[in-house]
Structure formats: C-alpha cells, structure tokens
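Progress note, sequence design subtask.
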C-alpha cells in the first residue's frame, strides 16, 4: 500500500477508531501490518539495517499513535535514544514526521526537568545538523494532548515535517521527505548523536589513533564502537559464529567454567575507513561480524587493518 494512502487512512479513521476497544480493531491491525510495511517500502535504499515498528497503543489506544524507524546502532525502542517517527495528532487531521527522542528513559533520569532536557537536546541536534534544518523546516510540533507522552514528544522533536490531511503531499514527496530525515538521522549518529562532548573528548583509547587524528577520523572509530555494542547484532553474531574466539580459539567456558558460559565480544569487520556519514551500516552477520575474546578484540583494533582476521590470526601463530 502506498505511504500516502497509509497516512491518509490512519488520519481519517483514528478519531472514530479510538472510541472502540483497541484489541483486534481493524485500524490497529492495519497499522501493525500494512502501515508498517508501507513505511518500510517508503525508506527505499535508505532502509538498509533499519527497523520499523508501529504502535496504535498497548491495551488502550495511544493518545498519539506512531510508526517509527529505529537504527539499532542507536536504539530499538521508542523509550530511549533517538529515532525517526510519524506521530498522529491526538485530535486534528495532522501527522508529523519527526526526528525525535526517547522520552521514557529521559524522564526516569530527570523527572520534572524532562521537557527542559528534551528541548535543550533538540536545540543541540539542530545545531549539529544545520544543513537539514532548512530542508526539514518544522522545528516545533503540538500533538494535541495534555498526556505525559504526547507532551514529551512535542518537547523531544528536533526537526521534520508537518502534514495536514487536506494538503497531504504526493507519494514521491512523502518518500523523499522520509528518506531525507533518515539521512539526517544517520548524520546525527556519525556526528556523535546526543552527546555534546563527543567532539572534545572521544572514547577512542582502544584504537591505534594518531595524536593528530581529525574529528572525522575519531567519529568513525566512535561509530564503530557503537556498532559493536549493538546488543541485537552481538547476539546474532554469537548465535551464528559461536562463542569461541576466532583469532586465538579461547573458549571462556572451558577456562572459567560457568561464569564464562556464552561470553564473547562481537567485532564489526567493515573497515573503519569505509564508515561514511549518511551511508547505511551493513548487518550481514556472516560477512560483517566476527567473535573475539576481549584481548584479541582490543589488540586487533591496534593493527593497521582491524577487518583482517586472517592476518591477525597469523600474527598470533608467529
């Protein structure tokens, strides 16, 4: 189903649907099925490695239903990190396409200061993505509900688009807008995400970086570490490759007993030099990941080519 028809149906049917129980409602099923698929297809070539989820609500209708796109390097949940999301207005025939923030984890940490924190971070994101602000010009949204989450969504909005039912753009424009915001999403991750200190003091001590490394070079290494710490990819790498180090053959369970059972680290094989702002990260577990013990993992990052497991293994034998 086209993306335009999907948004049109949800905007049109939601006011009446919310008067009825959520469970098994046709619109709820549509959002989780065809709606999610329409957003996935709308991503086009930008969709590599991304996860799409749709939520009409849990138990009851959400005040503001959504369809979200997550990069697992950043988050797989709307409760934390940052992500791209369609937010459907609570009362008006409007939908927002938003680069937004996980609000639940922020509220758990900051309590009554949550919206101030979210607003400050949104301002920071716009400063980090200046070239996208003019292209995605909606920098303030009102979701039409006084409930906690919708208000937090409004505070967490960084940039994006606002569409009314009466002036819903064409299918090509909607796809272009979605893919533009995904490029902004990936650019934000490459530039350090929500971490204001990334440019000044990056965590790159495990890497063999020269003292005069540029900000761009440092950003590549930080992104590489985020990829490797992605829990979903790490679990998949262990399931596919096992838990024995592919460089030195260390089996933690054999050496340490029960406490070592299942312990190993995922290593992303894509050369760090190949990580480029705005380019999708590949998640082919067989080709793009290996499993290494903690020592080998740190040492391979000190070699000239951390993607070359064969040469590193030969170094150990010699």
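Output:
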């Amino acid at each position: 189903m086209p993306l335009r028809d999907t948004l049109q149906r949800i905007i049109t049917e939601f006011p009446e649907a919310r008067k009825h129980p959520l469970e098994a409602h046709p619109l709820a099923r549509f959002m989780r099925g065809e709606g999610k698929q329409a957003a996935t297809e709308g991503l086009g070539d930008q969709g590599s490695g991304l996860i799409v989820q749709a939520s009409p609500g849990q138990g009851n209708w959400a005040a503001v239903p959504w369809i979200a796109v997550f990069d697992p390097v950043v988050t797989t949940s709307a409760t934390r990190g940052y992500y791209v999301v369609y937010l459907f207005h609570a009362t008006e025939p409007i939908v927002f396409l938003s680069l937004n923030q996980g609000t639940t984890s922020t509220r758990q940490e900051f309590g009554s200061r949550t919206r101030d924190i979210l607003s400050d971070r949104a301002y920071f994101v716009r400063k980090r993505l200046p070239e996208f602000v003019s292209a995605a010009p909606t920098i303030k949204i009102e979701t039409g509900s006084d409930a906690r989450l919708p208000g937090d969504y409004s505070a967490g909005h960084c940039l994006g688009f606002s569409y009314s039912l009466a002036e819903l753009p064409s299918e090509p424009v909607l796809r272009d807008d979605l893919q533009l915001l995904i490029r902004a999403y990936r650019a934000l991750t490459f530039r350090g995400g929500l971490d204001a200190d990334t440019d000044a003091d990056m965590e790159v001590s495990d890497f063999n970086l020269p003292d005069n490394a540029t900000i761009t070079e440092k950003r590549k290494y930080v992104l590489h570490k985020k990829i490797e710490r992605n829990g979903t990819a790490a679990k998949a790498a262990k399931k596919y490759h096992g838990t024995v180090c592919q460089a030195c053959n260390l089996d933690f369970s054999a050496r340490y007993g029960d406490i070592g059972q299942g312990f190993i680290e995922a290593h992303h094989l894509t050369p760090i030099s190949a990580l480029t702002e705005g380019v999708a990260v590949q998640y082919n577990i067989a080709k793009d990941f290996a499993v290494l013990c903690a020592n080998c993992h740190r040492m391979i990052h000190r070699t000239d080519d951390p993607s070359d497991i064969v040469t590193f293994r030969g170094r150990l034998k010699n």
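Strands lie at 51-58, 60-70, 82-88, 94-101, 159-164, 265-268, 289-292. Work on this subtask will continue into the next period as scheduled.
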